[in-house]
Each structure stands twice: as C-alpha cells, then as structure tokens.
Specification:
It contains 3 helices and no strands. By secondary structure, the protein is mostly helical. It has 2 domains: 67 residues; 43 residues, no CATH class. It starts with a helix and ends with a helix.
C-alpha cells in the first residue's frame, strides 16, 4: 500500500513537472510571437522588394528601346572583362574604344 508520504512526494513531483512545463509553454509562446513578428516583417519586406522588381521590369523595356543597336555590341560584350578587373583597367579599355572610334571617324571623314 502507498503511504501518505509517498503520495505527497508524488504530488510534489507532479507539481514541479507542471511548473516546468508551464514555463516551457510560456517560453515557447514568446518564441512563436517573436517568430510571427519576424515573419510579418520579412513578408512586408518581400512585398516591397516585389513591388520594386515590378517597377524595374516596367522601366527596362523603355530603356532597351532607347538604346541604339550596334553591330559591334557583340564584340564589346564578348571582350567584357571579368569582375576581377579594376576600374582603372575598365577605364583604359574604354579609352581604347574611344580612340578606335576616333580613328574610324577620321578615316571616314578623309574619304569624303
């Protein structure tokens, strides 16, 4: 038979476990609330980013129509340096393109 002391000890252990579970529940509830706030903030941010993408996509076709096409654009893209190049190297390459264009213009001018 179970004594009164054993019953009291079992009840006390049960109460202790109940307090632990209650604390864990409260902590989990706080975490859920924090995660829901974080989720809402991220969803708001995502919506803003999606709006920005839509706006940029609307603007892109207009800019492409205004950009003149060139037979040499494939050469420029093909010769486009990698991201490892510095701005100075890009400027030097651009200067070379400008000098080549000036030579072509001078040659065409001399023909007429």
């Amino acid at each position: 038979m179970v004594s009164e002391k054993q019953i009291i000890a079992l009840v006390e252990r049960f109460e202790h476990k109940l307090e632990l579970l209650t604390g864990m529940y409260a902590e989990a509830k706080k975490q859920i609330e924090q995660l829901e706030r974080e989720n809402n903030a991220l969803q708001d941010s995502l919506r803003e980013e999606q709006k920005l993408v839509i706006e940029l996509r609307k603007k892109t076709p207009i800019q492409e129509k205004n950009t003149p096409n060139s037979k040499d654009s494939g050469i420029i893209v093909k010769d486009n340096p990698s991201d490892k190049n510095t701005n100075a190297e890009l400027k030097q390459q651009l200067d070379e393109y400008i000098r080549e264009l000036e030579r072509c213009i001078a040659h065409l001018s001399s023909l007429s």
